Fold:
Amino acid sequence: MTGKSKVHHGVPADSLIRLKPQKLGRHYHKIPQYIKEISGKYPRIISDYFLRHYRINLELYNLRIHEELPRELECLFDSPLGKFGFAMDRALLTEVIECYYGGTLVANRDTPPISSSEQRMLDRLGLDVVDLFGRALLMGESVGRLQQIDPTYEEVQWEYVAEFSYVSHLTGERSSLYLYLDNPLADELTRRLAGPPPPRVSGNPVEHIKHLPLRLDCVVAAARMPLSQVLGLEPGDVLTIRPLDRVEVRVNQQKLFRGAIFEDDGTLFLSSLESVKNP
Structure:
């Protein structure tokens, strides 16, 4: 038996693309690019929030979209459109608190556990940043009332995680905050990216097929004539030309198939169709 093998051994798992059935045939693949386009259009929407409210100057360094991220979220918010998750690096959280309340930056800021003041700041930041992020995704439209819920007892299937990496002008360090989107939110973005559905046309479907916006070009007969004779032709002139045995049917000058012409009751029909293989 010859041919190419369809079973490949020794392929690294990281090089494989895992297909999710619910994403096939829809606009899910456009969501990461859409988030990046929105971030490029409004690069300082989150940075300006931190500068205005917490006197910390951040510069967006990078944006990555993950389908799976092992990092656990720290805040969970429910909205009429779906659920948002929020998390941020401990270094960035500590810098926000110290710049807001005053104090000296300490060297070790990643030591658990999170204090009650840090958790309150996380909740406040999460609510505001999620609202800003949601409005940007919906082109200025509000995501609705955000209600914070306990993530400990809530199991959510996340579709995408947007990781915003920022560089602090004060410390020069890079840290990230994370925004999570669940299934209903991804479905809502998919619906908006797909655009409005086409209007349903009433009536007999067969009649609509006859009026499809498609033009088929077919040369039924051809003859060799000198240019002088062609220029002398007038409407109504009769030429004796034998029809071609096989005719080519084209759409926009592209050959689709060949067929035979036959006549029945004064009407020409195309039959015996065969496809044309284009190189």
The helical segments are 31-41, 45-54, 90-101, 116-137, 183-194, 205-210, 227-231. Strands lie at 58-66, 75-79, 82-88, 147-149, 158-168, 174-182, 217-218, 247-251, 254-264, 267-275. The longest strand covers residues 158-168.
